[in-house]
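Course exercise 7: structure representation. Students receive a sequence record and must write out the corresponding structure in token form. The form below is the worked example handed out in class, using Peptidase (1209 residues). Read each field label carefully; the graders check that inputs and outputs are placed in the correct fields and that the protein name is recorded exactly as given.

STUDENT ID: A-19
EXERCISE PROTEIN: Peptidase
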Amino acid sequence: MANMFSRRPRTAIITAALALLAVTPPGHAAAAATVPAPQAPPTTLTLITGDVVTVASGRITVAGPDGEPIGARVITADGDTYVYPASAAQGVTSGLLDKQLFNVTRLVAEGYGDSLPLIVTYKDAPSARQARPFTGRELTSIDSVAVTREPGKATEFWATLTGSSPTARAAARNGIKKVWLDAKVHADLADTVAQIGAPEVWSGGDTGEGVDVAVLDTGIDAEHPDLVGQVESSASFVPGEEVTDRNGHGTHVASTIAGTGAASGGKEKGVAPGADLHIGKVLDNGGSGYTSWIIEGMEWATRDEKAKIVSMSLGSGPTDGTDPLSQAVNALSAETGALFTIAAGNAGPAAGTVGAPGAADAALTVGAVDGADAIADFSSRGPRLVDGALKPEITAPGVGVLAARSQYATQGEGDYLTLSGTSMATPHVAGAAALLAAAHPDWTGAQLKDALVSTAKATPDLGPYDGGSGRLDIAGTAKSTVFASGTAYLGIHPLGEDSGTPPRREVSYTNTSGSPVTLDLTLDAPEAPGGLFALSATTITVPAGGQATVTVSANLTGVAAKRTYTGVIEARGAGTPPVRTVIGVSTEDKLKHLRVTAKDRNGAPLWGDLTLMPKNDPSTPYYWWRVDGGSLDVLVPDGEYSLWMWGQVQGTHGADSIGVALMQVPVLTIDDDTDVTLDAATTREIKAVTPKDAVTGQVRMDYYRSNGQAAVIDSLTIAPEFDSLWAQPTPKVRAGEMALNVRWRKIEPLLSITSGKRSFDDLWVLPGATLLPAGTSDLQAVFAGEGRASDYAGLDAAGKVAVVRVGDDDEQVAAAAAAGVKLLLMVNDDLGRLRIPLRRTPLAVAGLSRTWGEELITRIQQGPVRLRVESNPDTGYLYDLVRYYDRSIPGDLTYRPSEHDLAKVQVDFRREAGDEVEEYRYDHSPHLDSAMGSTMPVRSKRFRTDWITADGALRWTTEVNQRGSDRMIRTQQLSASVDHRPGRTLTEQWFGPIQRPRLNASYDLPARTGDAIWAPLPGWGDSGADHVGLYGGSEATQSVSLYQGDKLLTREDGYIVAVEGLAAKRLPYRLVATTGRDAAAFPYSTRTETTWRFTSGTTARAEQLPLIQLDYQVETDGQGRASRRAPLTLLPSHLPGGPDSGTIKSLALQVSYDDGVTWRQERLTRHGDGWTAEPRPPSGARFMTLRATAQDKKDNALEQTIVRAYGLK
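STUDENT ANSWER:
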């Protein structure tokens, strides 16, 4: 079994990446044209495991804490991307770790980085209570603690969480049940009070007097006239912020509940103006808050302030109600009897979008309607995820709601503000509950909920999963003396299930009058099969001041469709309004046993990752299980599937080596208990044989499968411990599509060791070690046992190769260095190649697999052994290769490209800052919507030759970073995508001079959408290489301004500017980007200013701006200097993919040799697409400063000044 949690991975772990392609994500309410969210600058996240993920421009790179490549499973579904490092796999599949801890889309969007807020939930056991390893803010309602993984403490935190156990048992011994992301929760954004009948209740003297209502939101403007004297108590749970509402959301909500209407002469009252407000600030001034803040507020409101009603106009994404927020609602409702009224969310109109904490069983979950009781498009809908439960239960006015405006908020003006959202609907229900609680002070929250829901005004055009029981009608509630259970959900059941007893629920009726009431019951379920629902009685008598019950049951015999069924029980009696109960039941496919047996190539039990893809179930795009010990027995629904498994098999370097094998059943029909055998003996090795000797530095396999409604890409980034790839040949797949894509990065060997006929090609230079100087040596090998200092006593190891069995690597490295060892070889004590990160050391250290390492030890013990050691510390060449197999996998899986089959790229790395170049070439292969991988530092001199697979269906993008001595990125550049051609030779220069704003289609391009412009203008692309430059170093500055005519619309520091609300008609605009950086750190492009002039009007869709850009071509040396008579060529162009703005009609160039104090006009000669100047710098000039202008036939124009663009020899 692989060591899932070890921070020093002795046993390799297979990891996979699944990317969902065809499953449609839930829809969201359409919004007016607004500024599209531009791609953010590259963001680095430190996951709970300590592994580091960098997200930028549709690319994801993954590295271990030491910066070295790791295996990682990357799943993209419903628009979110999850990155699961190998060490987390067992924790995720066992349920110990919340999947949101790995949702990099969410982590980036919500601003997480190196610190990570967490909620640790404990098991309710005395022994567990005594061994709790984490301390923090106690959340006793859910037996949890809120902690923060501090910056720089990821490795220590992970070790504390997992201990030394290879499974979740370590956490279990510490009493830990689950670790959740302390997720951010957000505020969920005409006489609506009259719409629900509140004035009629007031007329009877009920204003909610004395009822304690807590509002958990963004705080309150307690000085607003409508709220003066209404606040009984307040507290802030947002660190560093007072209760004062600088957002406005909380004030709006609070006044909807209990505002007096003083600012409007009493007109704009809240629903329960007599209620006492308790204000808990749980959302910050930006409208967001952590889950732990909200739970602390909930506990304060119910336990300390004894609030009868808790209003929560906030929420997060859809859940099944098992999340911490929802569980806290259930626990506190049961403990205190409070009623939580909670917004359903604004993720409609798609089904299954009710979020937490509204997904809680105990919550009264509120949807939004307009003034005509029509459902708001944005209002989240049920059913609840997983079990299909009935949510929301009720609706209330939530469109165009007028309520108090906080004087501290920036939105709107005056005393009142109109907002829409389920946030606005929820306080109507909270206020109504307060009115009802004033009339029935002894009622529990559950009773208040049932009364409000069962007396809601019917909305026949809305189904129960859209509008619940109906629209809130507090006037009707106040008149009623009979109330019923609001909902009765009978659960979710497998089709064909015959338990002997149909599912059933009791529906309760309460009579508050002094006389018995006889009720006639009718059941209406127009969309359900006849006879599905039944009542135990159609007439029931409820005693005075008492209760009576009736049973509703569901006869599922013969029901063949997998779906939800709903209906309504209506009870009518003399002298009381009718009451209604919404009922429901759900069906799912009957589960069958799927028994999988997996065997290694030698017949031994196999373990790995098994994926099962349903053909026609968009709600479940795939199942993922870990197969341990060669067998798996799971229950799955009937249907047609595709099945595949990544298995860890024996590799090619002896019994202790490991490889990765893909085995599959492209079409699997499960209509009964099913047995499947996956035999790795049927697989064939996948190899890439290169013209020159090269070793695999990185490798990835992408398996694509589509069938019916399903389409999945499963990308496996393979850890260095694995030495080989294998796949099972398959005939042509005719049901849907199937493809296998294999990606290699093979590099010139850094270190080669041979002894006689044995080539130790399973070795791995360990991260943190120093490489030997270039050259070949003949060295004697000695065996130093466990590698401790005592093992070198009496052993002459100076200048030799010491071979040791791996142990305490720090001690072993120190002992070897003290003994004068030239090269230390560590022999693995587990399966696979040895790859352990070392502290940086001047000693050369490499790892050997156990099989070949023990063979070498035996030979040394038998007599003298000499090793031929060849070192190539600077990579002079590498191969980036892709092999694609479409619809079938052949029996011969060896790829043997010749140099003529490949494209040749002569790479020129200019090191203007820092010594280390970090580079990765991303392949955009068929079926892959995005590129991903681990950035692998490749130590190269200035020049390197790259050989690249050239295929018309394949495009490549390259990203290169330069790091300074502090390991911080100082410069980063990204190429445009390239379609290489076989046999073609290209030259590519990185970090050359003449750096300025330069754009390509690999990054977002400036665009207008409707009446909004957003323009990302990265300022550090170099010369004519079609590179986007995202950083100019920590010493660099940049700003972007947008003008309409001469009027400044906005100026932003950074490289992105965005403006909304532009005039619709076509008007002249001007974008100005300025950059600057320290000449001591960067001698060239010390200051630039680029101005674009263009006209623009409103658009029906996003359209790129008609901007001109200039490339520059001049021959420079490695120090960025040109000869004094070097010609300079300017190549103007428009942004790729933009509108046709005509050809360039004019171009001019001025040069300066005194940093722009004086200028000289240059004569330009046109040659093809370029204009060439032949500057003649004066004696003593050291730098060339440029000022160029260009204009096209539609009068779009560019002016660009680059101070010290390049040097002069």
